[in-house]
Design goal:
By secondary structure, the protein is mainly alpha-helical. It has 14 helices and 3 strands. Helix content is about 55%, strand content about 5%.
């Protein structure tokens, strides 16, 4: 198939040809549609071939990876260090980072779910009067996908929890077909590094027709899982911690990939600092809380390691201890400077570990 010529940048400078060129450019943008039928030379090998627009997209991202090879190696090393740290650490660390990442992603997409509201929703399914139930559901989905389960490239429709309705009369194209187009293009980029493929997948998400309300958090979580797909300890690569710089890039693929790597490096370093802090706290809490009797002190230390913020009802439900035992031990830990109450309220109080 002959490659399509790209439209010139000054398509509207000539009033006689501007309209034709604009129409040609708008058709070129629909890269996921099949091109016009043309006779092909007999000497071409049989089999499926990528459309010219798809080939151009893949070539752009391959060039972006080549242009940032040194930076990519450094970021891959950061992610590898985080992966090894999580592989050797307790299971609660993964959950803690997933909660932090999901909360930061909610701010990136405009839902603005704070760590306290997220913790109450995940642990107890509690929400406030003014909470957006759909936003809580989206961020809850993000936590589940960031903590485990099959990756997005196994079954994207199942991963994002989108199912085509039985009656497709109002659907121009089933979601499974649109997801299939995205997966096909990602499969053609199998030679790219997982971090590069994750960036490409995030930025072509809307081009594949996958967008709907909340799609940016879906695209980000999908990319986070792909970037860490070769890991043994890290289920996802942090993207939003430290400011979500990697998710805000525009321009050419090379520019987007450069910002992606810079933001991902910052996010990995932020995640490592979180782990440094909670590891140091765990050691101090174990030493200072050893004289405390019963199973509740140890159970509370585990909960405070796994959750950035904890309420007494949460701790009661997770540990199985009585409310009185939980409140008594939280008060003792607060006296020792191990926890701090964050709300300043008499009711609905929440505590966090302090270094």
């Amino acid at each position: 198939m002959k490659p399509q010529a790209s439209a010139p940048n000054n398509s509207f400078d000539d009033p006689l040809t501007g309209l034709e060129e604009a129409e040609e450019r708008s058709e070129d943008d629909l890269w996921f549609l099949p091109g016009p039928f043309e006779s092909e030379p007999d000497d071409l090998l049989p089999g499926p071939k990528a459309e010219p627009r798809e080939t151009a997209i893949l070539d752009d991202w391959r060039k972006a990876e080549a242009d940032n090879a040194a930076r990519l190696a450094r970021v891959a090393g950061r992610l590898g260090g985080l992966d090894e740290r999580l592989r050797r650490g307790p299971e609660g660390w993964r959950h803690r980072l997933a909660l932090i990442e999901a909360a930061d992603l909610s701010w990136f997409v405009g839902d603005r779910i704070g760590p306290d509201r997220l913790a109450l929703w995940i642990a107890l399914r509690l929400s406030g009067v003014h909470d957006d139930a759909a936003a809580l559901a989206r961020v809850g989905w993000a936590v589940r996908r960031l903590t485990g389960g099959p990756g997005p490239e196994v079954d994207l429709a199942a991963f994002v929890d989108r199912r085509d309705p039985e009656n497709l009369a109002d659907e121009a194209e089933p979601f499974a077909d649109r997801a299939g187009g995205w997966l096909d293009l990602m499969a053609q980029a199998a030679d790219l590094h997982p971090i590069s493929r994750a960036c490409m997948g995030f930025h072509i998400w809307s081009l594949a027709g996958l967008r709907q309300h909340g799609d940016r958090i879906e695209a980000a979580v999908t990319a986070a899982r792909i970037a860490a797909s070769e890991g043994r300890g890290a289920v996802f690569a942090p993207l939003a911690m430290g400011g979500a710089v990697s998710l805000r890039a525009y321009g050419r693929p090379t520019d987007r990939f450069t910002r992606w790597l810079d933001g991902m490096e910052t996010a990995c370093l932020t995640a490592m600092r979180h782990l440094d802090d909670i590891e140091a706290w765990s050691a101090r809490a174990e030493a200072e809380a050893t004289p405390l009797s019963g199973k509740t002190p140890r159970a509370l230390r585990s909960v405070l390691t796994e959750w950035p913020l904890v309420s007494a009802p949460m701790a009661e439900a997770i540990t199985g201890s009585s409310r009185a035992a939980v409140q008594r031990n939280l008060a003792l830990m607060e006296d020792k400077g191990l926890v701090r109450e964050m709300t300043g309220q008499g009711r609905y109080r929440m505590w966090r570990a302090t270094n």
